[in-house]
Amino acid sequence: MTSKDTPASDGVPDALADITDAPRLVLGDDELDLLELVLGRWLPATALVSVADRRTGCVLIDRENSPLAWMAPPPAAGADPDVQALQPLTRGGGPHWDPAVRLSADEVRRRTSAVSGETVACVVDDVPTLADGDALSAALEGARAGAVVVMALVGRLTRPAGRVGAAGLTRAAWALADRLEADRPQRPVIRVALPWPARGKVDLGTVTGAAGIGASARVTDLRSGDDQDRIEDLHGYVEREVADLYPPASAREVLRAQRSVPERGAVVFFTGLSGSGKSTIARALADELADEDPRRVTLLDGDEVRQHLSRGLGFDAESRAANIDRIAWVAALIAAHGGIAIAAPIAPFAAGRRAARAMAEPHGTFLLVHVSTPLEVCEARDRKGLYARARAGEVPEFTGISSPYEVPDDADVTIDTTTVDVEEAVERIRRQLRAVSAGRLVPATTDR
Questions:
Q1: What is the CATH number of domain 95-223?
Q2: In the prediction, which pLDDT does 335 show?
């Protein structure tokens, strides 16, 4: 198996335009985690065989239709398929997406190879308790450890309700790393955020072995049964305290009152040209809000909605209006139930955006975010090869080329990704969302 950052010339298409007719396979969140592990040389390409046909070559794409990798057929029967990156995977927001910790197996091996002693991995698959930290520290004390690799197992799937998400787990893991550094200053500690599928078993030994790590200690394997029971009991703590304080009839009423006050929902509605950066910012925003906001967050990406909710619609003006109407209706429904909907369609027409605002505002906060990245920049990026096809006349009614885009004059936030990075964009949106949700009248934020 080989894995590279750029397409190879042997058996791999030279440009995205050359793979237009190749079979395509859409990867979900877990499969994207697997792909990243394969491209980072943590796993062999056989890990992807379960999601791709190894007999014929295919392009692996995400749900935004961006070609990410080429999976070639194996050169011989029984051989591993060859997976080559076509372009970088899109990333989200939060500490687990920091490139400084999103390391390949080869990079970890390079950093640890010069350190004497056995490399040991401290695998953080749950937020460490005080006892977990003591147990890991004791395990290292008894080992002839050289470098210590603190691995936070973080996946793309949204956290379950009431559980700490990937960003929180990463912060807790790095705090553990700080302690291990303080306990043993002579031993280097390397932090790694490792994509980890939520469903499907990945062999930890295979992953650690790929980086030359000789031994590993996993937080949840070291945890006592009593501590695990206490953690699981936390979710019923309030109910038990209420039951101890009130008679049964009063307890039922107190708990019912607590559950009957839904938080006001919100809709963050993105608009902008294809390739402007809407989806990247929207995904990072969803990660941040899911990590810190108690409300459930739902991401309605334009391309994904087209594959499901709006399947069968075309790209004429009437179909585009129907697509935005469907997205707005679902987003408003989510807000009505106290959730946060993040929608990232192109939404080229002012009338559709106004209708979306009118539909959502009775149920919650509505924020219109215009990603104003210029057409020439979007066209230069062309992750999906759509602009080239539109210029060639292969894609009719393409916004910005053969169909108009009506620039909004009522955006609450305007962001040009040529001058604003993802982290700053997310912070601007969150700042404005907090202000509008609190009822404060604030001027729209803009790059202009």
A1: 3.40.50.620
A2: 93
pTM, two decimal places: 0.76
pLDDT tens, 189-226?
A: 999 999 999 877 789 999 999 999 988 888 888 888 88
- Please give the mean pLDDT across all residues of the chain: 84
Q: How far is CA 444 from the centre of its chain?
A: 27
Do residues 56 and 128 make contact, with C-beta atoms less than 8 angstroms apart?
no
Q: What is the DSSP letter of 234?
A: G
- Average pLDDT of span 333-343: 93
CA distance 91 to 279: 10
Determine the Cα–Cα distance for residues 193 and 123; give it in Å rounded to an integer: 10
Which of the pair, 265 or 50, is modelled with greater confidence? 265
> Cβ neighbours of residue 259 under 8 Å, at least 6 residues apart?
none
Look up the CATH number of domain 265-437: 3.40.50.300
Quick: pLDDT tens for 83-111: 899 988 888 888 999 999 999 999 999 99
Is there a shared CATH topology between the 95-223 domain and the 265-437 domain?
yes
Q: Where are the beta strands (DSSP E) in 62-105?
A: 67-72, 82-85
Bin 349: left if φ > 0, else alpha if -120 < ψ < 50, else beta: beta
* C-alpha span between 12 and 261 (Å, rounded): 56
Six-digit token string for 178: 């700080």
Query: Cα(355)–Cα(120) distance, rounded to whole angstroms?
Result: 57
What whole-number distance in Å separates Cα of residue 208 and Cα of residue 195? 13
DSSP string over 8-54: -SSSS-SSGGGGTTS-EEE--HHHHHHHHHHHTTSS-GGGGGGGS-T
Provide, for the chain, the percentages of residues in helix, strand and coil under a 3-state DSSP scheme, each rounded to the nearest 5.
40, 15, 40
What is the residue extent of each domain of the chain?
16-85, 95-223, 229-258, 265-437
- Diameter over CA atoms, the chain: 75
Q: Which of 7-11, 283-287, 365-369 has the highest mean pLDDT?
A: 365-369
- pLDDT value, residue 179: 92
Closest to 121 (Cα-Cα) out of 229, 4, 184, 212 = 212
H or E element, residue 375: helix 375-381
pLDDT number for residue 241: 86
What 3-state class would DSSP assign to 131? helix
